[in-house]
Give the backbone structure.
Amino acid sequence: VVFWFHDESTFYANNRRKKHWVHINKGAVPLPKGEGASLMVADFISADYGWLHSHDGKESARILFRPGKTQDGYFTNENIIAHAEKAMDILSKDYPNEDHVLVFDSATTHVKRPDDTLAACKMPKNPLQNWGVLRPY
């Protein structure tokens, strides 16, 4: 059995050390505010094979995602499902003689339930007379 661990990391354009050594004659240099543009990298890795890719190296499970409302949007459960399907396609073509397990951490995008599922966090704290009663529209 081969275990494939899913992980994602986000890198920011303005991510740098705030303190550094400078020459005494050098003046202050203004720095951009905020984190800047970001890039998220998601991939699957295994102790047996390393990063998930096809045997010929032409296909990879790696996803580059630019989060933000003016970029690619936000990484949602649908993105996780698409990423898992991409990984399963590579595994079924290039690693068909082994059993595989895809392992995800407990990020909120990985534990999505159907929208009509009952959840304790959506229930009222105190009993209500008509809560949970189905009524015709």
Summary: The chain has a mean pLDDT of 84. The first helix runs from residue 77 to 94. DSSP finds one helix and five strands in the chain. Strands lie at 2-12, 38-46, 50-51, 63-65, 100-103.
